[in-house]
Design a protein that fits this description.
two-stranded parallel ribbon; single chain; eleven-stranded mixed β-sheet; alpha/beta; 13 strands
């Protein structure tokens, strides 16, 4: 059962569990600090495919395949497939769904899509007849960069505040079957728009949305801040993370030493990735590797995961529109034994 707490938060009185995960990454992500978590990876951006878009589809198919094989689960065991990506009309997810004999719904929340999908899975799993939901997200440096910024071959120099789109895909099976890691609560975000128009400032565009959702969590769950081992944001990057902590300090909340950003963990900081990693894959790759394993191994107990996304429409930005952002939060915990 779901119990609504406050304005946009819900507690799962019967927790749901992450039964299986699957990850596949590009070459730079494999070389990054978390590379040892990724057993499936492409040696280059094409991965043997003819285009970046086909390669991204291959990444998601690999992640889904790993999900199934880890637990010997078949497509017939899945009640729904919830997935999203950065391509127009969820191009990757829709074509992956074409390969799967599973009912499909496309998720669209930019880089916060993974938490949106998990929240939708939580709603579905409250019904008696739904037992397993497959969620997946992906992004690709080649396909996303030329869709939203400039084609990589153009050679345009980025601002230091710009993020680098991660190449990879993450998938998970969310179910009622008891496992080590469970999802116990979530907070749906509200769109925030600070009237910013520069796509190279994604971190500062998303930070206010993460702060808004964070404040809502604290309001809805009084005293909960001290219960979290980590406050994890999706892909604010170097500049967005500083702004996130600064804005919270203005509200009297200090998360210094407790906050970490996925965009700062995925790629090597000493190499030129500008402000850090971004893209739908970034939060999923870090959540389902580093944090998932630390929860399983009892090195962490409870984390608040705030995936963040800029709801960028390239055509509207060219027409002078500002860029809105959103952040959805989920609470992940280690299941206590006994």
């Amino acid at each position: 059962m779901l119990k609504k707490i406050g304005k946009t938060s819900y507690v799962l009185q019967n927790p749901i569990y992450i039964e299986s995960t699957g990850l596949c990454v590009g070459p730079e992500e494999k070389k990054g600090p978390l590379g040892y978590f990724f057993s499936r990876y492409f040696h280059d951006l094409y991965g043997g495919y003819k285009s970046f878009e086909l390669a991204e589809r291959g990444l998601m198919l690999e992640a889904v395949d790993e999900c199934f094989k880890k637990r010997n689960i078949a497509e017939r065991d899945i009640d729904a497939f919830l997935a999203g990506d950065l391509l127009f009309h969820n191009g990757t997810s829709s074509y992956v769904a074409r390969e799967l004999a599973i009912p499909y719904m496309g998720m669209a929340s930019a880089c916060s899509t993974i938490t949106e999908a998990m929240i939708m899975a939580a709603f579905m799993l409250q019904t008696n007849d739904c037992h397993r939901v497959l969620v997946a997200v992906s992004s690709h440096f080649g396909s996303a960069e030329r869709q939203f910024r400039y084609p990589p071959t153009f050679g345009a120099e980025k601002k230091q505040t710009a993020n680098t789109t991660a190449t990879g895909a993450g998938a998970a099976i969310i179910s009622k079957t008891e496992q080590e890691v469970m999802m116990t609560a979530f907070t749906m975000g509200q769109v925030q728009d600070m009237n910013q128009t520069d796509p190279s400032q994604m971190g500062s565009i998303m930070a206010p949305a993460a702060v808004h959702t964070m404040l809502q969590c604290i309001k809805d769950y009084p005293g909960s801040l001290n219960d979290f081992d980590w406050i994890v944001t999706g892909d604010l990057g170097r500049h967005g993370s500083v702004l996130f902590r600064t804005l919270l300090l203005k509200e009297g909340i200090d998360v210094e030493g407790k906050h970490v950003d996925c965009g700062m963990l995925l790629l090597h900081p000493e190499r030129k990735y500008y402000a850090g990693a971004s893209g739908c894959a970034t939060p999923a790759l870090v959540m389902f590797s580093y944090f998932f394993e630390h929860l399983k191994q009892k090195k962490m107990t409870r984390i608040l995961f705030l995936a963040t996304g800029t709801l960028l429409n390239a055509a509207l930005v060219k027409q002078g529109e500002s860029i809105p952002a959103i952040s959805h939060a989920i609470v992940l915990e280690r299941r206590e034994e006994g």
